[in-house]
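Re: beginner question about structure tokens

> Can someone show what the tokenized structure looks like for a real chain? I only ever see the sequence side.

Sure, here's an example I had lying around. Input first:
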Amino acid sequence: MIRRVLSPALLLGWLVACAGPERIDDVAGKEEVVIATSSSESEGGIGGTGAPSRDKVLAVGDETEGGIGGTGIFGTVTAFGSIVVNGQTIDIDDAEEPSHTEMIGRDLPLTVGSTVIVEARPDAGGWTANRVSIFLPVVGPVSAIDPAARVVTVMGTRALFDESTVIVDRRGYIDGKVIAPDDIEPGDRLAVSGLWKGGEVIASRIDRLDDKGPDSLRGLLLKTEEMVKLGGTRLDETCCETLAAPSYVQMVGTFADDHFRVDQADVGSTLLFGERVERLIVEAFLARDPDGQGFHLSGFGIPADQSSAIDAQPGVRSLFVGAYDEAFSIQRSIALPGDASARINVFEALNDLAEPD
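And the corresponding structure tokens:
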């Protein structure tokens, strides 16, 4: 197994740890590197544990130009030029189009508020994308809406929004029309961009779609004695008998009678980041495993390497940077403010992360 780490000098220049007394490397012994994966909060209480396998095999010399493997970047688009994600300017002109169940949402524009998965390589001006796709945790009909509480429930999964969340009606509008939360009604079909936090989505953008079309889910599949679920959405158990849990899945299907019926399911963390990705720059929430032995990225199930020498603060929106192999060796973390404008200020203050040394 090849594991590459960033230099100590670079770490010292940037490590801003989340406040809190607990450190990931203090939680458990370091003999077991790939930790158990499930979630805190709504994802917790699962019987049994186990980390989703990346099934990664790298031969010596299997590298991209520049002497390192690719970098996986996940976060929210905050500006264009080509796009800016986590303060990183990424040229997407020649990026590969997505495949698999990522076909859901491919007709949506890539715009401010979109959450994206990018595989990129560093260049003189920042980054050049090899692959980019919009990440939509939930696409489907509205179960309930509470504009005053700023919560919309889609197929049983709660999506939390604030004044910075852009809500756009794409029904009959070529460029979309900005609408208010009060305009959303039960039964409307929404595509939600955002980050998983436990079983909920912190929404950065919401698009109202045509009523007809496939529903979809992307996130951590969980099984309890009572149900099979993803986020707050209950799945048709007969569709998921052969799927291992916990594991990252992308599902296409239909939501009806308070259940999601799965027509197609792709499983595995390589759907997030391919086998050539050896480094991550990820905006996410850290979640605790239910057995108390470690942490993972909420909604993704990517396990945090237990040797990661950072303070852990589950449930706090953060930017994580580090090496990625069978687990995520987090070498830098910075807690992000809840206000979107304040987050942009933090991102703009970051040093260039394109250089690994």
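Each token stands for a local structural state, so reading them left to right follows the chain. Helices lie at 8-12, 24-27, 340-348.
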